[in-house]
Amino acid sequence: MDLSNKNLQCKLWFLLDLMLQSRVSKSPIILSGFWRSGTTWVQQVVAESICAKTQFEPLEPNALFPLHGGVGFDPIQGAYVPFTANVFSDKDWRYLDLAFKGISPKRSKFNYLARESWQECLSDRVVVKFVRAQFILPALMQRYSAQGVVHISRHPMAVIQSLMNAKWEWDFADIDLSDLYWRENELSICPLWEELKIYKNASKEEKIAALWALSEREVRQSENIVFVKYEELLKEPDVGFSNVLKMLGLQVKKRVDYSKDSPVTASNRVGASLEERLNSWRTNMPRDSQIKVRAVLRSLWPEVDKEWELG
Fold it and tell me: Helices 237-247 and 39-50: crossing angle, nearest 10°?
């Protein structure tokens, strides 16, 4: 049996997760944050430090969720971040229930890229990472009795610049927000959709800025969340991650190599210097784009200047 074959490996580990789900007895850890904010790196470090198994992006379209029609990847769903848990069906919740037991929906290979051996299937705790859950964190915390929620923030200009250059299956430039948020549009009252739809015909960077601002604004209204800045972790990972685990009431079980690139780090970011990760947006983002982004951020989240120096 060739266990070096990734397809076979993923199927076997999926079956082990399914068989061993009753072993997952401890409260989960939830990691939240926008795309390109270091969430995968943080998940990898936290999970390795406490010897937990990981669960990547249960709400991504490739998970074949009923939320996404259960038909595989659809580019229009790429940027979808549910504004309310009211959009989930009972079947959606059943899929999430599996995810919080460490079972990857439809044997998604993405969820197993970070695993180093089958023994991780034996873990009794799961670290679940979302870039699509900022608006529904209270519902997740209540349903799954999470031990803690960590929200990772990164400078919005750095996030937007990174997303502008991302070569993914989908692109914010092609997203029609009216089509993307049809579920929220059908709800009788959805204030967040009313704010976002102003930007449905905006530029790519303005759409990203609008969604980022709304998500950061809303997540700060949730209780019992540990807020962490990506830049602070990057500069002093020993201190930063130690403080995160302490605030979650967790003990370090294993030393971790903080400098190791995450399993999904884009090739153009591998080996990037600290300065490049922190400040490349200052020279790489066009001035007119910076002006447009600042206007959107300040309109939707006036307190943004208290958190970040926007240039």
Answer: 70
Rounded to an integer, what distance in angstroms lies between the CA atom of residue 267 and that of residue 254? 27
Tens of pLDDT along the chain (311 residues) come to: 444 577 788 888 889 999 999 999 999 999 999 999 999 999 999 999 999 999 989 998 888 788 888 777 787 788 999 999 999 999 999 999 999 999 986 656 667 777 778 888 999 999 999 999 999 999 999 999 999 999 999 999 999 999 998 888 888 888 888 888 988 988 877 899 999 999 988 999 999 999 999 999 999 998 899 999 999 999 999 999 999 999 999 999 999 888 877 766 655 566 677 777 778 898 999 999 999 999 999 999 999 999 999 98
Give the span between the Cα atoms of 173 and 164, in whole angstroms.
9
Of residues 236, 257, 239, 258, the one with CA closest to residue 247:
239
The b/e string for 289-301 (b: 16+ C-beta within 10 A; e otherwise) is: bbebbbebbeebb
First-last CA distance in the chain: 56
Cα–Cα distance for residue pair 42/136, rounded to 1 Å: 20
